[in-house]
From TrEMBL:
Region: Disordered, residue numbers: 56-133, 148-303
Basic and acidic residues biased stretches: 99-110, 236-249
Catalytic reactions of this protein: DNA(n) + a 2'-deoxyribonucleoside 5'-triphosphate = DNA(n+1) + diphosphate
Name of the featured protein: DNA polymerase
Domain annotation DNA polymerase alpha catalytic subunit N-terminal: ranges: 8-72
Length: 1464
């Protein structure tokens, strides 16, 4: 751009001086036109060319081929500008003549040598074939371009200079924008993604042009000021004028189709174009370019049972989106949507903020057709509202003076501040506000100075203080928050806009209707009394298939499928498979071309299938159809964090025109922070205007609690039933095997298309949209944020609305940086305070369970919504509880006092009471037998939303990231909960009832009754006794257990009696046991389920034990015979961090599997669930640890993998521990007997059957000497060496593991730039230092409580032995046991680990074991040599450690003490 301007400036200067450019032209010396080679050299050039690909190959496998020779004798009549780059050297050029004259004497040799590689005579070049457009192409083009027919086309076509740009693509397909107008002045044709150019004139706007970016004419797709022609012919002329320079590898096969693409929008199909060359060599073609189709694999498609086709066949698929159906294009006229009084009504769905303006997206009703269309409203003149708290005395230079402050002083200082910020328009006035939150020094009610100024001006820092004011509130309040609080807008609803300007906004968005308003005061929610139904929405579910580009390590899109449901009501109750839908799938080949006859077969499928040749064409076509359907909601599985990221990154990578159609706001350029850590928030901003509903994000997971891995297959199995079962496929393997055939690829594409149905079916079945809308209406936040799963934000907004209505100043939202800085400052202020103890206050009370098997009726008495009820019962609120004492002495953590009974009801209890009352009213409505299914579905969703919101209100009090975090209130609430549970237990015992367990809000009472009627009678009497004590708290009978196996805290299994149609039915209920954890495989859970059924069957104990023993023998036999399906061995583990961040990742199976998947190009993120099977390994890994032998199910299932589950590992780690724990309460069996039944060698193991009543992890432990070092020393501190020269810190893991640090001359620094050796003295000094550090840690003698709710850590030893003294040291409030944080066993193992580092013989033996591995022989020789070189050196270091080991008493056994009884 800069060079072009410089050339123009130079040209103007020459014209001004009367000269021409020709007079200043200088001839530059050029290099040699050709390279001289001899005959052998020329043959070598030809061979190299033949080794390369043909320069053009069409999709049918025919066309031009390059045989490596120059065609010197071909002659062309003329040369056009377009073909000049591809012209060949003329036969009569000067270079050819000169060469012939110089080499006359060797003419004969040349004719027999090089000349035989040339063609003997001139050949006429075949004319370029014109592409043939089919009838379907014409219909599709007419449909896509139909929208421009509504626009008036100018007769004048703007002239554009020919621009040669290296950044312009040769092939461009762009669907026309919705509406385009003429542009009066545009000196240059600009690229789609070039930088924005400021227009010559801008319309005058209020508030210092704060909405200018909305009207920037950034590119062809954002005409927002003056009109330009929208005719496709004009576009074709403009694009024809551009000479493309850059060629991308993926589009090389499209170079000869430039004439086709010059039309701009013509969708040509590859098979309909036949490109033929002047000299096609068919034999060479077949030899050099075998395709999957030509190589003819033996029917790989038969390997897969494509059961998903059965699901597809039952769906109600309408005509495809690409058909030429009649649709309304262009913008709606204002008179079609406005009301009779001139106002506009819009149902808002989403928002975004653009330079101080709030942009709302929603739906308006077209009065002429009765349908709903997308709408965009830009709102200006929303003002910031800041509140300045005046000081009592003026403060200068940090010192308080005697000068009193009045409001006028504050006014002058604030006014001066606005002048410095160049804020021309602002309003200042005095007001009264209340404050009830955690900031110290703020009065409960006082006078504030209120400042209003525009959002397009810079924000004032929230920590700002002045001479006359001490605090500023509201500095970082977002534009959206300010607006919804001001107008009392509670979530998505109908809004009424009066005085809207229908001409102020022109093509700022992709919506069908646009307007703007600069009078936000005239915006108001439409009253509920009008009973306006929400508009119907257009839903689009998406599914993608990607392929890893190994060279660039990027995922590239192979298939994009979409399923569109139009005019869907939020309360839709019809089955998903019955709903009418439209589908389209855009794809490209995984290789160079599609299988033979694939196109004919794919067009027989229901729906639209568009076959493109490259990813660039795929993205362009997908965007065109996406824009045509204009969805309101995008649905997907892992859409939020995976698919959307890939789609956006590919659009940016390919510079796809019109990429911003994914959202509804037109944009000129990509955000600067995109792909630079912006994350989902940046991506969500780009799709503003469309809601993103992801079944695999936090919101989706919260509605599908039965899932463990949250894969789409698991979701379908659990929530859609067996008729909608999804089949999991290995995409990478499929593309290399069965999907390479015609039928296989059709099934592969249909699998992607079927996934779009599964996603939509889950969303509709779970009522995700309806539930999230009601939750948003209750909280008053944005629907998009609720869909992303932000529960804490919903709680914040409902409190913001409530306190704002009551004239309270709300707490400002701290950024994460400020919050971390504040936490650090608090730590610095109180270094002695234990951070864990301070952060974690005491939660619910849990009674010690009376373990055992109960065969009489046990009642579970549960308090209804305990914490919300406590808040109401005791009037706990920010406005009622005095929190001063606790804030003065935080170390003591004093619980605040309960407010007086005559205190005014607080805002928080009143809000919860309102939610509970509204839920009660909705539940009454549900009892109406005349209600329709749609009404019942809506009411059920509403009552669930009210319940979820009321129960989560307590959470914001104790959540440190919440702006309403109030630790004293949370402490008071849980304190009252513990108090209530204790008094309930005391009441039960006073009535001679036995409480066998209690947890937070419930107690289990053993009734000792044999009939259910007697048990219920006991429960009813106890219920009445408890409820008499409280005004609002209620206890009720929650469960009736016929039999109960009480194992430990929060761990039990019971036969629950549930009432169904007036009869009681048995149902197994399990809580907290191993079989409920995802870390145990399906086979382990199946065995646990079988044992539970036997234990709780009520039969004779001896019979039950015999059955259990027989079953275990049978199970072990089947496992060792490998007759158990391999799918039952899959273990699921959730990653808490990135796999490479785990310090012990080498010994963690899920980390190893995740790292292997990352190497394949898969996306692995924290909180992902990894599935794997521990196998026996292959020839290379069979001798390695279980982590190295763990693979995914797909890897194990491969026919040639040779991988089988490690049966001994599963018996020892997956089957035995949960079974042993389940059988522990049953007399007559023990761990040894169970181990024998499973075929485990019990003699090798030490049975841990300590009588410690709190230890619930009874397990068989191997002898210490038999544990591998990788397991035994897993938690040991690593030996770190610091180089004295470069200060590099490195971990030394022994000679065998840290081979790169070992040389014949000792250990060297691993830093490549340093490489200096460590002296023996240096190593000994650092080794001794680290041993002493570990010894010091051991002798500190810290004790920790095993009760997680207590978390007490102290060095005080109780006179009661192991009893916990509690956080206050009064031996109250905790029944946990104290144990050493750093045990003597850890100290001993630490010393052994340090000693093992210098054991050269062990290193040599380890290298011997790895002999079978890849490169193991070479490593063995290296280790063997280094062992001998370093034996003496390492022996010195080992002697240092052994000196400490000799002082360690753990390795010595006092024999006289053991056998003293024999000497008596």
């Amino acid at each position: 751009m800069a060079s072009a301007r410089a050339r123009l400036a130079e040209l103007r200067a020459l014209r001004a001086s009367g000269k021409k450019r020709l007079s200043t032209y200088e001839v530059e010396e050029q290099g040699d036109i050709y390279e001289e080679v001899d005959e052998e050299g020329y043959k070598k050039v030809i061979r190299n060319r033949l080794d390369e690909d043909d320069f053009v190959v069409d999709d049918n496998g025919e066309g031009y081929a390059d045989d490596g020779r120059e065609v010197w004798n071909e002659r062309n009549g003329g040369y056009s500008d377009e073909e000049s780059e591809d012209d060949e050297l003329p036969a009569r050029s000067k270079a050819a003549k000169r060469k012939r004259e110089e080499e006359k004497q060797r003419k004969e040799k040349i004719n027999n040598g090089i000349s035989k590689y040339f063609n003997s005579g001139p050949a006429a070049a075949a004319p370029k074939p014109k592409p043939v457009a089919t009838a379907e192409d014409d219909a599709f083009m007419a449909d896509l371009l139909g929208e421009v027919d509504t626009n008036v086309v100018s007769n004048k076509v703007p002239k554009h200079n020919v621009v040669k740009s290296e950044t312009r693509r040769k092939v461009r397909i762009l669907s026309p924008p919705l509406s385009e107008k003429t542009r009066t002045s545009k000196p240059k044709r600009r690229d789609e993604n070039s930088d924005p150019v400021s227009p010559t004139e801008e319309p005058a706007l209020d508030l210092d042009n704060d909405d200018a970016p909305l009207f920037h004419p950034d590119d062809d797709d954002i005409p927002m000021s003056d009109p330009i022609p929208s005719s496709p012919v004009t576009k074709a002329v403009e694009r024809k004028a551009i000479v493309p320079i850059k060629k991308e590898p993926e589009d090389d096969d499209d170079d000869l189709m430039e004439v086709v693409q010059a039309t701009g929008h013509h969708e040509s199909k590859a098979p309909s174009v036949n490109i033929s060359g002047s000299r096609p060599p068919p034999k060479l073609k077949k030899e050099l370019y075998p395709t999957p189709a030509s190589s003819s694999p033996v029917k790989p498609g038969a390997e897969v049972d494509a059961s998903w086709n059965d699901v597809r066949n039952k769906l109600n698929v309408l005509s495809s989106p690409a058909s030429s159906e009649s649709r309304v294009f262009g913008k709606l006229r204002p008179q079609d949507v406005v009301e009779e009084d001139g106002s506009l009504r819009m149902f808002w769905l989403d928002y975004t903020e653009v330079n101080g303006s709030l942009c709302l997206f929603g739906k308006v009703k077209n009065k002429t057709t009765g349908s709903y269309a997308s709408a965009f409203v830009k709102i200006d003149q929303i003002l910031r509202k800041l509140y300045f708290l005046p000081r009592e005395y003026r403060q200068k230079q940090g010192q308080t003076t005697d000068e009193e402050i009045d409001m006028e002083d504050v006014y002058h200082e604030v006014d001066q501040m606005m002048s410095r910020l160049k804020v021309n328009m602002h309003k200042i006035k005095e007001c009264t506000r209340k404050y009830a939150f955690e900031m110290p020094g703020v009065p409960k009610e006082t006078q504030y100075l209120k400042l209003l100024y525009p959002y397009d001006k810079p924000a004032i820092p929230m920590e700002t203080k002045g001479e006359t004011f001490s605090h500023v509130f509201g500095t970082n309040t977002s534009l959206f928050e300010q607006f919804v609080l001001w107008k009392n807008i509670m979530g998505p609803c109908w809004l009424q806009f009066e005085g809207a300007d229908f001409s102020a906004v022109n093509n700022a968005s992709w919506c069908k209707f646009e307007c703007a308003t600069s009078k936000p005061a005239l915006i108001s929610p439409v009253p509920d009394t009008e009973n306006l139904d929400p508009p119907t929405l257009t839903l689009m579910s998406l599914a993608f298939r990607t392929q890893l580009n190994v060279k660039e390590n990027k995922q590239e899109i192979l298939i994009a499928s979409a399923r569109v449901y139009e005019n869907v009501s939020l309360t839709e109750t019809a089955p998903p498979e019955k709903l009418p839908c439209k589908t389209f799938t855009v794809m490209r080949p995984a290789g160079s071309s599609y299988p033979v006859n694939f196109e004919a077969d794919i067009r027989k499928q229901r729906g639209t299938y568009l076959l493109e040749k490259s990813e660039q064409f795929l993205l362009s076509k997908f965007l065109a159809l996406f824009d045509k359907m204009d969805p309101d909601v995008l649905m997907g599985h892992q859409l939020q964090e995976v698919d959307l990221s890939i789609l956006l990154s590919r659009l940016k990578e390919k510079k796809t025109p019109g990429w911003h159609r994914l959202g509804r706001l037109k944009r000129g350029e990509w955000p600067k922070n995109f792909n630079r850590g912006g994350g989902f928030f940046t991506e969500r901003h780009l799709v503003a205007g469309r809601l993103v509903c992801d079944v695999a994000n936090d919101m989706g997971k919260s509605l599908m609690m039965k899932c463990q891995s949250w894969s789409l297959t698991e979701m379908c199995d659990l929530y859609l039933g067996s008729s909608n079962a999804r089949q999991e496929i290995d995409i990478e393997a499929a593309l290399k095997t069965w999907a390479t055939s015609k039928d296989g690829l059709v099934n592969f594409v249909n699998h992607c298309d079927t996934d779009t149905y599964f996603v939509a079916a889950l969303v509709l079945r779970l009522q995700m949209l309806s539930l999230t809308k009601v939750l948003t209406n209750i909280a008053g936040n944005s629907w998009a944020r609720t869909l992303s799963g932000t529960r804490a934000e919903r709680n914040e907004y409902i409190l913001l609305h409530e306190f704002h209505r009551n004239k309270y100043i709300c707490p400002d939202k701290y950024s994460s940086k400020l919050q971390k800085a504040e936490e650090k400052a608090q730590e610095d202020d109180d270094e002695t305070a234990d951070k864990k103890k301070k952060d974690k206050y005491k939660g619910g009370l849990v009674f010690e369970p009376e373990r055992g098997l109960y065969d009489r009726f046990v009642l579970v008495m549960d308090f209804n919504s305990l914490y919300p009820s406590i808040i109401q019962e005791y009037n706990i609120c920010f406005t009622t509880v005095d929190r001063t004492p606790s804030s003065e002495n935080e170390n003591e953590e004093k619980v605040p006092e309960v407010p007086a009974s005559d205190a005014e009801q607080g805002i928080l209890p009143r809000l919860i009471a309102t939610l509970v009352g509204r839920r009660r009213e909705v539940k009454k409505l549900m009892k109406d037998k005349r209600a329709t299914p749609e009404q019942l579905a809506l009411w059920d969703t509403k009552q669930l939303a009210f319940k979820l919101t009321a129960n989560s209100m307590y959470g914001c009090l104790g959540y440190t990231q919440s702006r309403f975090y109030a630790r004293p209130l949370a402490m008071l609430t849980t304190f009252k909960g513990r108090e209530i549970l204790r008094s309930t237990k005391e009441l039960a015992e006073s009535k001679q009832l036995r409480v066998i367990y209690g947890d937070t809000d419930s107690v289990m009472i053993n009734t000792n009754m044999d009939t259910i009627s007697d048990a219920l009678k006991v429960g009813q009497e106890f219920k009445n006794s408890v409820n008499e004590r409280y005004r609002l708290l209620e206890i009720d009978i929650d469960n009736i257990f016929r039999r109960l196996l009480l194992h430990a805290k929060k761990k039990y299994a019971a036969v629950n009696m549930t009432e169904v149609d007036g009869k009681y039915v048995d149902k197994l209920e399990v809580k907290g046991l191993d079989m409920k954890r995802r870390e145990y495989c399906a086979l382990s859970k199946e065995a646990s389920q079988r044992l539970l059924n036997e234990v709780l069957s009520g039969e004779d104990q001896e019979v039950v034990l015999n059955r259990i023993h027989d079953y275990l023998r049978e199970l072990a036999g089947k496992m060792r015979e490998y007759t158990v399906p391999v799918q039952k061995y899959v273990i699921y583990t959730k990653l808490s961090k990135r796999p490479e961040e785990y310090p012990n990742k080498e010994t963690m199976p899920p980390a190893q599997v995740a790292l292997r998947e990352l190497a394949r190009g898969k996306t692995i993120r924290p909180n992902d669930v990894i599935s794997y099977i521990v196998t026996n390994g292959d020839s290379e890994t069979s001798s390695l640890s279980p982590a190295k032998r763990s693979y995914t199910l797909q890897d194990v299932m491969k026919a040639d993998s040779g991988l089988k589950p490690d049966i001994e590992f599963y018996l020892l780690k997956q089957i035995f521990p949960p079974i042993e724990r389940l059988c522990a309460p049953i007399p007559g069996t023990d761990a040894v007997r169970l181990a024998e039944c499973l075929g485990l060698d019990a003699r090798k193991y030490q049975i841990n059957t300590t009588a410690n009543s709190t230890s619930q992890n009874t397990e068989i432990f191997p002898l210490e000497s038999q544990i591998p070092d990788s397991v035994r020393f897993e938690s040991a501190a690593r030996f770190t060496l610091t180089c004295r020269h470069c200060k590099e810190r490195s971990i030394f893991e022994g000679l065998s593991t840290s081979l790169h640090m070992c040389t014949p001359h000792g250990i060297i620094c691993p830093n490549a730039a340093c490489g200096k050796p460590f002296s023996v003295l240096t190593i000994v000094a650092q080794l001794e230092s680290q041993i002493r550090a570990q010894t010091s840690q051991y002798y500190e003698g810290w004790l920790v409580c095993d009760d997680s709710a207590c978390g007490n850590r102290t060095r005080q030893i109780s006179v009661y032995g192991h009893r916990c003294l509690g956080p206050k040291g009064y031996a109250e409030g905790c029944l946990g046991r104290m144990s050493y944080e750093y045990t003597e066993k850890q100290m001993y193992n630490q010393l052994l680990y340090f000693a093992s580092l210098w054991d050269v013989d062990k290193a040599k033996a380890a290298a011997e074991k790895e002999k079978g591995a890849s490169g193991g022989g070479e490593k063995k020789e290296s280790v063997a040599a280094l062992v001998e070189f370093n034996r003496v050196r390492f022996g010195t270091m080992r002697g240092v450690v052994e000196g400490y080991l000799r002082k360690c008493g753990r390795q010595w056994v006092e024999m006289d003490g053991l056998f003293k009884f024999m000497l008596a």
